[in-house]
Amino acid sequence: MASVAGLLLLAGCGDDAKDDKKTVPAGDTAAPLPGASSTDTGKNSGSDEGDNSKLDDAALRTKVQASAGATKTVHTVGTVRGQKGETRLDLHVDNVTKNYAGTLTASGRVVEVMRLGPDMYLKAGADFWTKDAKVNDPNVVALLQDKHVKLKADDPRFKNITAIAELGDIKSAVSDWGPTVQRRPEAEVNGKRMIVFADNDPQDGETLLYIPAKGDPAPVRLENKNPTDGGTIDWSEHNKPVTVTAPGPETTVNLPALTGETPAAG
Predict the structure, then answer these.
(1) Nearest to 27 by CA among 91, 114, 120, 98
(2) Fewer CB under 10 Å: which end of the chain, C or N?
(3) Is the model's pLDDT at 153 over the cut of 70?
(4) Of 4-13, 90-99, 106-115, which range is least confident?
(5) Rounded mean pLDDT of 197-216?
(6) How many helices (H) and strands (E) does the chain have?
(7) DSSP secondary-structure letter at 45?
(8) Residues with Cβ < 8 Å from 215, sequence gap 6 or more?
């Protein structure tokens, strides 16, 4: 749990522009993008309707880790807090192919994001490119705004987007389930009983993991209590197929092909 808590903090922490780095917005709209879809034909990673609350901690941990590891796709929605304020995300993530699509929102600016193989696409208005990406040339901004800007998925200038997308990897939330993790009283999430585990890390603060008390025990919520750098991530639609479709060439701008200034976001 500690590793994902740290990733959540990383996703919420933006660096100053003077260091050639910048917070990249994260999304809050629930409507799927043209490039992403999940169908209703998928099923959760398990159909077991047993009462998970009757298991002891060791048995439950084993069951949770197995279910999380089998979760290939997930709808990830949440908010992370950071130095630049709140960042919201709404992403459909395929943890096998590493493809994803959705929205990231911060400071009222929405960025559509999409990863397909080695490529990433960003679509945002002029405010993002001037205020967040620090593009000062109005001619370049005119080329970028409201277009699907194509770049390499590992472009270091946009590393925060990659970090945020990794919050969809549920198995990371339970991969380092150490001795500091303790069971807490049950709670409810969206009207359903949840088993709660807590990890109180001196550096990251308290992190809570919510697991369904009945049925498939794949985690559905991660909550970090850090008041300045924490956040809440909700996982749903486990293993529903996610399809990411590249935008058409008529709306795509290839970032490496541009001359002049290029964004300094990261």
Answers:
(1) 91
(2) C
(3) yes
(4) 4-13
(5) 91
(6) 6, 14
(7) S
(8) 44, 46, 47, 48, 49, 50, 52
pLDDT value of residue 158: 85
**Which of helix, strand or coil describes residue 16?**
coil
d(CA 236, CA 106): 22
What gap in Å lies between CA 187 and CA 164, rounded to an integer?
26
Mean pLDDT for the chain?
81
Q: What is the DSSP letter of 31?
A: S
* 73 within 8 A of 81, measured Cβ to Cβ: no
Amino acid at 52: N
Strand spans (E) along 64-142 = 73-82, 85-94, 100-106, 109-116, 119-123
- Is the Cβ–Cβ distance between 86 and 74 less than 8 Å? no
pTM over 0.70: yes
Q: Quick check: 173 and 68 in contact, CB under 8 A?
A: yes
Give per-residue pLDDT as tens, 109-127: 999 999 999 999 999 999 9
Query: Which domains does the chain carry?
Result: 2-249 (2.50.20.20)
Cβ pair 226, 240 in contact under 8 A: no
To the nearest 10°, report the CA torsion of 45, 70, 51, 47. Answer: 30
Question: Quick one: which of 218, 259, 255, 11 has its CA closest to 119?
Answer: 255
Q: What is residue 266's predicted lDDT score, i.e. its pLDDT?
A: 43
Residue 138: what residue type?
A: P
CA atoms of 106 and 160, how far apart (whole Å): 13
Which of 127, 187, 164, 124 shows the shortest CA–CA distance to 266?
A: 164
Instruction: Tell me the H-state helices in the chain.
Output: 2-12, 57-69, 126-127, 138-144, 159-165, 171-174
Residue whose C-alpha is closest to residue 265's, from 70, 172, 133: 133
